[in-house]
């Protein structure tokens, strides 16, 4: 950086005014995020409102304003949550239960200043979930799979290889149908598939109240649910969040007994077609481990890996720890035992226990 650029960067940060944004003024941060077009959908106030409502974790939002301007418009935001766990120290997380939720700002310097300010303000460990690693040294870690979408579903279908188009058509020929909805009944139908699949995987599910809170607090059309039907049965479901030109799919599930009908193919096609027709240009298919099954599934849709970087800053220290690694992909013997035990639980008990446990699992 030359001397003039350094002076400009210094001027940008020296004029910043930081403040905690009151919940009643959350729309100011949301309006700013909407202006960025590619800001993470997890930064919307609907996410932290759902965290508070469903799981009771206290949330906040640090904003940066340009003190050199009389209007002092928001030019950077950093939402965060006080994540409390039993028998463990409370940690600030730049949003739990999601892949990428770091600061959003008009310049990288302002984004960095937000993190530094929050770290100074709070005597707690601070976890920032950056959606893109700054160094290729982290390339072997967990990645998010991102695909670019054209401006219409017709162009999207035409961009696919013949094999992929054939798989989508196969699902329809097998008698599957799909739709995109935003109503509360759709949440319940989604949860039926999701909770059964989580039990099959041996993992505690989120509560139904969590998903209901997400649809309640996100604006109409910014949280949608894709449903795949076989006759009168929902056999596949996914929840997608939209923000400007970017969308993410935090959860997608299918019923294993119907997987031979290819419901996952129809689900992902239906959702991507909906997004392309609604102005979304970047679709984040979620966290994966390179070269594993979910990675390869997403790759066939044209998704490319972007290395994630979850950074942990200890209080009163400058040292940064990088939390994600490919080594986490391999389950330990204890984890395998826990999964088998969970799979044996009755579904109603698994859902009830999951709702109590899941609030303490930030992944």
UniProtKB/TrEMBL annotation:
Domain BioF2-like acetyltransferase as annotated: residue spans: 162-299
Transmembrane regions listed in the UniProt entry: none
Entry-linked InterPro entries: Acyl_CoA_acyltransferase, BioF2-like_GNAT_dom, FEMABX, PG_Glycine_Bridge_Synth
EC number: 2.3.1.-
Molecular function per GO: acyltransferase activity
Pfam families, per the entry: Acetyltransf_6 (PF13480)
Keyword check for Transmembrane: no
UniProt keyword annotations, A-Z: Acyltransferase, Cell shape, Cell wall biogenesis/degradation, Peptidoglycan synthesis, Transferase
Source organism superkingdom: Bacteria
Entries under Gene3D superfamilies matching the protein: 3.40.630.30
Family (UniProt): Belongs to the FemABX family.
Protein name: GNAT family N-acetyltransferase
């Amino acid at each position: 950086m030359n001397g003039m650029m350094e002076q400009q960067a210094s001027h940008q940060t020296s004029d910043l005014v930081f403040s905690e944004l009151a919940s009643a003024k959350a729309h100011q941060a949301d309006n700013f995020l909407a202006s960025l077009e590619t800001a993470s959908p997890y930064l919307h106030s609907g996410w932290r409102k759902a965290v508070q409502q469903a799981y009771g974790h206290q949330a906040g939002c640090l904003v940066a304003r340009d003190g050199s301007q009389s209007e002092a418009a928001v030019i950077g935001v950093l939402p965060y949550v006080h994540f409390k766990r039993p028998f463990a120290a409370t940690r600030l997380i730049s949003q739990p239960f999601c892949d990428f939720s770091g600061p959003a700002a008009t310049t990288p310097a302002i984004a960095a200043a937000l993190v530094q300010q929050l770290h100074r303000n709070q005597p707690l460990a601070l976890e920032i979930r950056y959606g893109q690693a700054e160094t290729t040294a982290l390339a072997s870690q967990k990645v998010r799979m991102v695909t670019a979408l054209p401006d219409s579903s017709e162009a999207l279908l035409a961009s696919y290889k013949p094999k992929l188009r054939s798989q989508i058509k196969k699902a329809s020929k097998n008698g599957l149908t799909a739709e995109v909805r935003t109503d509360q009944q759709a949440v319940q139908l989604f949860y039926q598939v999701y909770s059964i699949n989580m039990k099959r995987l041996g993992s505690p599910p989120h509560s139904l109240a969590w998903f209901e809170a997400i649809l309640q607090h996100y604006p109409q059309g910014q949280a949608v649910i894709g449903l795949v039907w076989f006759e009168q049965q929902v056999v596949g479901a996914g929840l997608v969040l939209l923000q400007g030109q970017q969308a993410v799919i935090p959860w997608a599930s299918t019923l294993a007994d119907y997987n031979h009908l290819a419901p996952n193919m129809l689900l992902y096609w239906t959702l991507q077609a909906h997004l392309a027709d609604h102005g979304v240009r970047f679709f984040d298919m979620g966290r994966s481990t390179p070269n594993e099954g979910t990675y390869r599934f997403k790759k066939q849709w044209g998704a490319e890996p972007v290395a994630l970087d979850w950074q942990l800053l200890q209080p009163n220290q400058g040292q940064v720890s990088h939390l994600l690694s490919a080594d986490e992909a391999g389950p330990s013997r204890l984890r395998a035992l826990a999964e088998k035990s969970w799979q044996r639980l009755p579904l109603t008990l698994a859902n009830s226990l999951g709702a109590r446990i899941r609030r303490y699992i930030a992944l």
